[in-house]
Design goal:
4-stranded mixed β-sheet, 6-stranded mixed β-sheet, EC 4.2.1.17, Enoyl-CoA_hydra/iso, about 260 residues, binds acetoacetyl-coenzyme A
């Protein structure tokens, strides 16, 4: 499919999705979401791709849901059609997603970054939940994911006041995994995704699923879930290859089987 509001490129076994509405600071319109989910479906089906980087521009990862599109939102139609439900498809993507965030990640932009498995931040990144200043609240998971990521005090402060956080604060409180110089961000994010994609895809997907489960269940259930996935990986050829390669002191050749 030809995309306009996102760009999809392949870099070896990693994919790179670039949000591409620079004039609107990558505001997340319905069309952009449709293209993003289409691109992710393409990646899900592409056996060659093992992980994906989602990025924006140097000025903005994304400045939130498209306010111009939302201003006349009909609440009945929004409820009937579940206006925001398309975002669940992003969160449900089963291969790893790395958010490479430079510039603004506000509202829905910050929520999209948090739907990814981890965030690499450029030194100029700014995170925030300004919805309260518009008379609304976050609507694509922000109230639920931010508290799990940074704890109640910071989540409440950001959501109730609209205050933004710089990259240093975001790293300190665990919202981002690392800060990278802005000029290096994309190359580093692609390198990280390529490293993930060099491993056995079933193991990588199981790792993502198991860690993701921690937010949705009790510790005891989560540990049982992890153990079942752990046992199941011994049914893969890649487990045999990975361990044989270690014992034979050579590089493993994973086949995603
Ligand atoms: N929706 C639509 N258009 C947006 C936008 C958004 N979220 N954010 C920026 N734009 C547009 C601006 O309207 C402007 O377009 P025009 O040139 O046509 O006027 C263009 O992008 C550039 O923006 P600014 O001129 O405002 O740039 P700036 O550098 O002065 O400010 C900014 C940058 C601080 C990010 C500012 O644009 C801003 O505050 N944006 C809105 C942020 C926001 O409130 N996000 C939350 C949206 S609601 C949401 O996300 C709900 C949800 O959870 C589902």
């Amino acid at each position: 499919m030809a995309y306009e509001q996102v760009r999809l490129e392949r870099r070896g076994r990693a994919a790179l999705i670039t949000l591409n509405r620079p004039k609107a600071l990558n505001a997340l319109s319905a069309d952009l979401l449709a293209e993003l989910t289409e691109a992710l479906d393409e990646i899900a089906e592409d056996e060659r791709i093992g992980a994906t980087v989602i990025t924006g521009s140097e000025r903005a990862f994304a400045a939130g849901a498209d306010i111009k599109e939302m201003v006349e939102l009909d609440p009945v139609a929004a409820y009937r059609d579940d206006f925001l439900s398309g975002w669940e498809r992003v969160a449900a993507h089963r291969k790893p997603l790395v958010a490479a965030v430079a510039g603004y990640a506000l509202g829905g932009g910050c929520e999209l970054a948090m739907m990814c498995d981890f965030i690499l931040a450029a030194d100029n990144a700014r995170f925030g939940m300004p919805e309260i200043t518009l008379g609304i609240i976050p609507g694509i998971g922000g109230t639920q994911r931010l508290i799990r990521s940074v704890g109640k005090a910071k989540a409440m402060e950001m959501i109730l006041t609209g205050r933004t956080m710089d990259a240093v604060e975001a790293e300190r409180c665990g919202l981002v995994s690392r800060i990278v110089e802005a000029a290096e961000l994309l190359d580093e994010a692609v390198r990280v995704a390529q490293r993930i994609a060099s491993f056995s895809l079933p193991a990588v997907m199981a790792a993502k699923e198991a860690v993701g489960r921690a937010n949705e269940t009790t510790l005891a259930e989560g540990i049982r879930f992890e153990r079942r996935l752990f046992y199941s990986l011994f049914a893969t050829l890649d487990q045999k290859e990975g361990m044989a390669a270690f014992l034979e002191k050579r590089e493993p050749q994973f086949r995603n089987r």
